[in-house]
Design a protein that fits this description.
This protein has 225 residues and is mostly helical. The protein is 70% helix and 4% strand.
Length: 225
Amino acid sequence: MIKISPDLMSIWKYKGFTLNATILFTWILMAFMIFFSWLATRNLKVEGRVSRWQIFLEGLVSYMRLQIEGIMGQKTDYYLPFIGTLFLFISLSNFLLIVPGYHAPTGSLSTTAALALCVFLAVPIFGILQRGWKNYFRHYIRPTIFMLPFHVMGEITRTFALAIRLFGNIMSEALLGSILLIVAPLFFPILLDILGLIIGQVQAYIFSALAAIYIASGVSVTLKE
């Protein structure tokens, strides 16, 4: 039986508590990111000879800053920690699919829904922090109060679509890989791994770009008030 979602893969059970693959690999991924961040930033230098870790880190941060600035059209340092973390988490989660026995947390609908919920909450939070809650929530009743349910429904549906898009792509790639592993266990899985790496990084970029677009739209609404 092919288990599509890591939610269905039980690792450990104790008195009603079940540790599934989604929780396990999410914890491992977060621990790895924290350790790598500490390792890469513990000896930062502003002059003199810098380490390869610092060069790599500065290049990565610069790349994310340029991408976010190109999407949002404004200074990015305010939004970089949130959007950059989203990108790194999804990118690393998908990249590690090449490791045998690993199951990407992004292949779980609960994980993608949680990520989409973070974006859903970030939009009003950034908007309120920029211009205040009155100016932000006022756009929900523009040009008339009858537009309120439509604005709310639009925010909910785009959040739902954000979660389903990422989950669907990662889940379908994992399912196709399982089928090809059964049909042709030697040749096709190698090509699929390469394709999966590319698709995973594209999905990380798309998710982060959409998050930046949604946040920019929420902030721009308040700036126009």
